[in-house]
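Collaborator request, handled under Task 6.
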Amino acid sequence: MNDQETTIHIEHDKDGQQGLIQAYCELTKIKLSLLVVMSTAVAFVMASELGIDWLAFLWTVIGTTLSAAAAATWNQLFEQKRDASMARTQNRPIPSGRISTVHAFVVGVLLTYGGLATLAFGANPAAAGVSLLTILTYVFVYTPLKPRTTYNTFIGAIVGAFPPLLGWVAAVETLSGGAWILAGILFLWQIPHFLALAWKYKDDYEHGGFTMLPSLDSEGELTGRVSVLAAVCLIPLCLLFTSEGVASPLFAIGGSLLSAWFTYVSYKFWRNPNNTTAMRMFLASIAYLPLLFILMLFTREYVNFTVTLTGTS
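Structure tokens returned to the collaborator:
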């Protein structure tokens, strides 16, 4: 083999490795998994009133990342036929043939065992139990119901509310009021977030055999109304989060203002349902959650600072 052939072979191997890495990222829905990990990490910090165990925090983040990736992999395994029939998903790794079904199955098994073991031994068995419940519900309840009922969005939102519970129990081995309020925030946030996508891609979802609310609501009136109701309910939950003593009054104010803005964007979609207003609602949801989490962390520090001053006065 001459130098030119060697160079071509090396470049081909690099392209193959990069293509496999890209396929793994798509198979595990890494961007969506990061949102899951973010909510778990924030819950862990908010629950740690007596100080953060950073080693347990690290293992919780790693275990949650692996578990979220596992759930996404199993989901794509079960939905490969529907994915192949939809323009938005037909290029995913399994339907496109970049990763075989057997390959994806092995990846799913390894990720599941890795995630559960990491949480069990790095955090505590309760955290691993919540993770297992999340994976099982996502794969065996939410996924089969997607083509059968419009309530799949709400069931999926329940599953999406589990990660904060995981983070909370990983930190303190129990669930208090703050954990359930945080889970409620995640539940409500997901409704306008996913309904926005369901509206934009309603024809594609219908072609794939999924029963989504916008597919049965051609005018968008009900889809918009549900989105507004979910968004407006975020305001009292922000107030409750402060009343539980988890965050300072600054969070009640800031969180309520953020939720009011999100409600307004959802209202604009309700009054004029189209792809433009739907994507504005989707982008608002993408901005809302990180901003709310940042506010939580900031006001948590404020609460701790206030308690310290009071204790030393």
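The cover message to the collaborator said: "The mean pLDDT is 87. The two ends are 79 Å apart (CA to CA). Please let us know whether this matches your experimental observations."
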